[in-house]
Amino acid sequence: MEYFNLQTDSNAFCVTANTFPDGVLEAHQELHSIVGYNSNRIYLGVSYRNTNGCIIYKAVATKLFPNEKNEHKMEHITLKKGTYRCKKVNNFKILFLNSNELPF
User: Fold this and answer.
1) Which pLDDT score is estimated for 97?
2) Is 13 part of a structural domain of the chain?
3) Which pLDDT value is given to residue 86?
4) Which pLDDT score, from 0 to 100, does residue 92 have?
5) Is residue 64 a part of any domain in this protein?
6) What gap in Å lies between CA 82 and CA 4, rounded to an integer?
7) What CA–CA distance (Å, rounded) separates 101 from 17?
8) At 90, phi and psi to the nearest 5?
9) Rounded CA gap, 46 and 28, in Å?
10) The pLDDT value given to residue 93
11) Which residues contact 59 (CB under 8 A, 6 or more apart)?
12) Alpha-carbon distance 19 to 26, whole Å?
């Protein structure tokens, strides 16, 4: 694990996965179909356990500016400044295997 220091609060759009981990790819695909790619955005995934112990996963794209329009009525979150544990993945590609295809 690495640490990432977010210097200021950051407003973002997000799509919550229906399930974890199976819904992660679909959440990112939906996010990118609505927001589209822009090199000035930060794209990431945020996960946490809810009060029932289930993992909640959100595909996130930071807003280009604080008052960016939310034409598609997407969920909005604020990433609070601070230090976060993270895993940076370069050239990210998602590959999901059925459980019977896993090598372990």
Assistant:
1) 42
2) yes
3) 82
4) 60
5) yes
6) 8
7) 23
8) -85, 150
9) 11
10) 53
11) 14, 15, 17, 24, 27, 28, 30, 31, 43, 45
12) 10
